[in-house]
Amino acid sequence: MASLVIEPPAAVTLPVAGTEARFPVRRVYCIGRNYAAHTVEMGGDPNREPPFFFQKNPDNLDPSGRFPYPPASSDVHHEAEIAVFLKSGGSDIPVDKALEHVFGYALCLDMTRRDLQAEAKRLQRPWEVSKAFEHSAPVGPIHPVAEVGHPTSGRIALTVNGTPRQEGDLNQMIWKVPEMIACLSRYFELAPGDVILSGTPAGVGAVERGDVMDISVEGLGSMTVKVV
């Protein structure tokens, strides 16, 4: 067996609620502008257009409950979402079979360096510098489908220091979870360990060091993340 020239990076694993088990992460896909009100908020067309995706890195997922304010930005925004964890995958997955590939769901935040994203948009450049930085996806424990089913409706909300910022309902997603999976599988070969972030409702806004963010989703509980 060939030797490795460096130590392999540690696998990214996340806790499964109520167990000692861990979920290994392979890839992280994120859908953009998946709530009509947020699409308007970001200057887009709320009509149902083909979905688009960007990616974060597996080690951006952080279950620590702490969000270190990132460098190179003075305008970092919260985006409350749910994360979808796949137990199996494939290519060209039919919509009516897509949910068979889901292991579970978790609360998640898509933290965004909004000033860098705005500059990337202006220059028509990729978003990774604004989206895929360290600790940019605070995440809660994974709730298996066997315990929570497939949440298709229910309140999603976020407060900062107790003040309401975001509120919506999962049923307001333009592209539902089965459609996201089916669409992604036309462009990528999905696999066990893949994660999909669902998009965020309206009300995104800036945070500062010392702020406390609380996200809740009906059926998936709540999560507190402190900006440090």
TrEMBL record:
Biological source species: Albidovulum sediminis
Any one GO MF annotation of this record: hydrolase activity
Protein name: Fumarylacetoacetate hydrolase family protein
Domain named Fumarylacetoacetase-like C-terminal: residues: 28-228
Keywords: Hydrolase, Metal-binding
InterPro entries: Fumarylacetoacetase-like_C (IPR011234), Fumarylacetoacetase_C_sf (IPR036663)
Pfam family, one: FAA_hydrolase
